[in-house]
Write a structure and sequence with these properties.
Number of strands of chain B: 16
Order of helices and strands of chain B: EEEEEEEEHEEEEEEEE
CATH topology of the largest domain in chain B: Glycoprotein, Type 4 Pilin
Radius of gyration of chain B: 22 Å
Structural class of chain B: mainly beta
Strand order of the largest sheet of chain A: 13-12-9-10-11-14-21-19
Strand order of the largest sheet of chain B: 1-2-3-4-5-6-7-8
Oligomer: heterodimer
Number of strands of chain A: 22
Helix content of chain A: 25-40%
Strand content of chain A: 15-25%
Distance between the termini of chain A: 66 Å
Number of helices of chain B: 1
CATH superfamily of the largest domain in chain A: ATP-grasp fold, B domain
CATH class of the largest domain in chain A: Alpha Beta
CATH architecture of the largest domain in chain A: 2-Layer Sandwich
Largest interface: A-B, 60 and 60 residues
Radius of gyration of chain A: 24 Å
Number of helices of chain A: 18
Shape of chain B: elongated
């Protein structure tokens, strides 16, 4: 087995990979930016190396420095996590040239799936249905796109050619809106990926975003680990994922067909290691290939929960050259798992990013709850990186049990100092379309509102009024006491004793 | 001390009697309030019912996050309440509007210049934070009077970006 692995990432995913390495008895190397000196992945690792200043371009995107550090430290492999360098074919190739194992697919597979046009042509040739779009035409100018749009038909999507994570993506409902949206999509794509090229794709209405987890070894064995339903999205960013999909439910024949197509798509690019095939499933249960993510996914823990497989450990074994530890017939999904992505965003203020110091964390524990996180009390949420700070995954014997458990765990989870979207998840767990499993990719943006959804919940206006008044009263009392003592500098030391102090 | 706490349009009179008793409307309640680990996270036991909430000040009011729901509570002592009522509560929107950064980030584009007329909803600037670009729009029609940022500059949360004076013909003004 590998002796030492460099983890070319940060945050919760760096911690996740580190844990797999530790369990396999492999030494770990963390890399970090100046902002992350005190991050958990740095403190948990056996060795840690500074990459550079805080912006990702000066740190986590510096493949050259990653490789230098890996060689200097005597690593035999690099795990890229997700984001940053995970889907950069040139980085995978550079690792191979430097004699390091890249824990992921071959550079050629990344390149084939990374260019959306090539990916879609490849899978279409293998007989997989794709969503109609213009990506096959190469880079087009605005006038050309405007001319092609009516042929595809509205509504449609503008997508960044080198895109991902919902960036550089816009929904278009009419030709009049299109010039402005093209401009803003190109601008965002340019700043996120350094490439302002966009293409058009038909927007499938009432669609479900359902993806299949693939695992492949270097001997040509490819299996799938079932699906994940990822239709709870906002601005094309996933917020909640679950397995199995309540939309596929017990339609075992559709599940088998989609799984077979996913394996076929992976084989078409000679795929090895973990990957994900994303599909759109329309309201008539037709499914279309959307894209392949040639890396570990954020939401991999829901699949781990229902299959019992440690996907990261399996990635490492397969990259080392071992065959898959299971065959398709040994993959059985048990129970139901749900993941909530907890972002530093304020759901009461249009999901504005929230930054600052986390002063207290009280994580939920107990039966069936898993937390993947990179934060701790004292951690500073900076504007440099993704707002995802922690993920909570629950497992239940049935989907209703998983929902009840998620509600319980969300209520236990306290993160103080910044705003998080925990209230969004709590509200969602009480929303009829979610509970009944009848939601599609437009649900959050078109039908969901924090205020309307909260109307069914029990109100505690009196308790809220009382609590706020007692807190406000305590603060005013202490302030006036401090002023009387003519010692305004000590004001802060009174706060911890609020409400319990003698007058 | 007597207070009036207003939440969702309802007034709750609260009189603090001593450190464990409060008159809440007509009722006298026994309570104990403790800040958890010195944080703005409060455990409240009231008549032996236990609640935990996150309470923090926000632009003149108090936000209470309690059992998965956020409440905005306005608290005034009686004196303040009378004072405000006597002013008959009419504040005209004739002062200039200051656009502040809703979050720390990078000003990617500044779309307006000083003296420019803007429409309601027009994009004023684009702020990038956590890899997302956020369009900041004008809340009303008016004239840009000051621009304090340039494209490419980093801004802190609540930093003043620019100011706009509402259009004189704007119907929002009496």
């Amino acid at each position: 087995m590998f002796k030492k692995i460099l983890i070319a990432n940060r945050g919760e995913i760096a911690v996740r990979v580190l844990r797999a390495c530790r369990e396999l008895g492999i030494k770990t190397i963390a890399v970090y930016s100046e902002a992350d000196r005190q991050a958990l992945h740095v403190r948990f690792a056996d060795e840690a190396y500074l990459l550079g200043s805080s912006p990702a371009g000066e740190s986590y995107l510096r493949g050259d420095r990653m490789i230098d550090i890996a060689r200097k430290a005597g690593a035999d492999a690099i795990h890229p996590g997700y984001g940053f360098l995970a889907e950069r074919a040139d980085f995978a190739a550079d690792c191979a040239d430097a004699g390091l194992v890249f824990i992921g697919p071959k550079a050629s597979s990344i390149a084939a799936m990374g260019d959306k046009a090539v990916a879609r042509t490849t899978v279409a040739r293998a007989g997989v249905t794709i969503v109609p779009g213009t990506e096959g035409e190469g880079p087009l100018r605005d006038e050309e796109l405007l001319a092609l749009a009516p042929k595809i038909g509205f509504p449609l999507l503008i997508k960044a050619t080198s895109g991902g994570g919902g960036k550089g993506m816009r929904d278009v409902f009419s030709i009049e809106d299109m010039p402005g949206l093209l401009q803003s999509a190109r601008r965002e794509a340019k700043s996120s990926f350094g490439d302002g090229n966009v293409y058009l794709e038909k927007l499938v209405e009432g669609a479900h975003h359902i993806e299949f987890q693939i695992m492949a070894d270097q001997f040509g064995n490819v299996i799938h680990l079932g699906e994940r339903e990822c239709s709870i999205q906002r601005r094309h960013q996933k917020l909640i994922e679950e397995s199995p999909s309540p939309y596929l439910a017990d339609d075992e024949s559709l599940r088998q067909r989609m799984g077979a197509v996913a394996i076929q798509a992976a084989r078409a690019v000679d795929y090895a290691n973990a990957g994900t095939i994303e599909f759109l499933v329309d309201k008539d249960r037709n499914f279309f290939f959307l894209e392949m993510n040639t890396r570990l996914q954020v939401e991999h823990p829901v699949t781990e929960s229902v299959t019992g497989m440690d996907i990261v450990a399996e990635q490492i074994r397969v990259a080392f050259g071992l065959p898959l530890s299971r065959v398709q017939d040994n993959i059985r999904c048990r129970g139901a798992a749900i993941e909530c992505r907890i972002n530093a965003e304020d759901p009461y203020n249009n999901f504005m990013p929230s930054t600052g110091r986390i002063t207290l964390i009280q994580p939920p524990t107990g039966p069936g709850v898993r937390i993947d996180t990179g934060i701790y009390a004292g951690f500073e949420v900076s504007p440099y990186y993704d707002p995802l700070i922690t993920k909570m995954i629950v497992w239940g014997e049935t989907r209703p049990q998983a929902i009840v458990r998620m509600r319980r765990a969300l209520e236990e989870y306290r993160i103080v100092g910044i705003r998080t979207n925990i209230p969004f998840h709590q509200t969602m767990m009480d929303t009829y379309p979610f509970i009944s499993g009848k939601y599609d990719t437009r649900f959050v943006e078109e039908q969901f509102s924090m205020i309307d959804a909260a109307e069914n919940r029990e109100l505690y206006l009196d308790i809220a009024a009382l609590m706020a008044t007692l807190v406000a009263h305590g603060q005013m009392e202490h302030r006036s006491q401090v002023y009387r003592r003519n010692d305004s500098s000590s004001i802060w030391k009174w706060f911890p004793r609020l409400g319990r102090q003698n007058r | 001390m007597k207070y009036i706490a207003e939440v969702d349009g309802l007034d709750f009179p609260v009189e603090i009697l001593d450190e464990h008793h409060v008159r809440f409307g007509e009722e006298i309640l026994e309570f104990d309030l403790a800040a958890v680990s010195g944080q703005p996270l409060y455990s409240l036991i009231v008549n032996n019912e236990s609640f935990e909430g996150y309470v923090y000040p926000d632009e003149g009011s108090w936000q209470v996050l309690l059992l998965g729901r956020s409440y905005s509570v306005n608290i005034e002592d009686e004196r303040e309440k009378r004072l405000r009522r006597s002013e008959n509560g009419n504040i005209l929107p004739d002062h200039e509007f200051t656009l502040r950064a809703p979050m720390p980030g990078l000003a990617v584009v500044v779309m307006v210049h000083e003296g420019q007329l803007v429409e309601k909803g027009q994009i004023l600037a684009i702020l990038e934070s956590m890899k997302m670009q956020n369009e900041l729009r004008s809340p009303f029609s008016g004239t840009v009077v000051r621009v304090r940022i340039k494209a490419g500059e980093s801004v802190e949360q609540k930093q003043v970006l620019l100011s706009i004076v509402p259009d004189v013909s704007s119907p929002s003004k009496h």
